[in-house]
Here is the input.
Amino acid sequence: MAEQKATNVTWHEHKVTTAERAKLNGHKGAVLWFTGLSACGKSTIANAVDAMLFEMGKHSYILDGDNIRMGLNKNLGFSAEDRAENIRRIGEVAKLFAHGGTITLTAFISPYKADRDKVREILQPGEFVEILVDASVETCEQRDPKGLYKKARAGEIKNFTGISDPYEAPEKPELVLDSNNKGIEELAKEVIAYLEQKGYFAA
Here is the structure.
């Protein structure tokens, strides 16, 4: 865990509460945490869900793995330590978005259970929705839009999840999406249906 280096700091409560923001928006803030292997469809599904939420008039935003690594986390690599810090930082950002009333979608491999559990722990009960985008290594290799699996197999990429690094699938995710056999729109609708069923669209 990252050391608290800043001293003499105090958490400031906001005059506008999270509940008041939910009432104004007409829906609760939450973190939809999409996890799965590279090329399993995380970002594509998250984008489809985001578009559906937008059409429904909901406030949402995607925090995408590659995009975050181009800015906020550009100083991090792919060692276990850097992966943990990557997820810690994005967890804290997602928490701020959610408490600001936004349905926040994150698309990260986030291969280690302990790191995902730490994000769950900093959020309120029900705010963290862990979504496993379930696709086999074989399926992901067939898709492989960036050619990463081929490079990993050739030894050109080290610490590649599913090949030279482990992926610890969630044991009890809120939602499992069958990305082996179902299309993007169908899976996105399953996420929307879950949110409706669990009352996230009620302030």
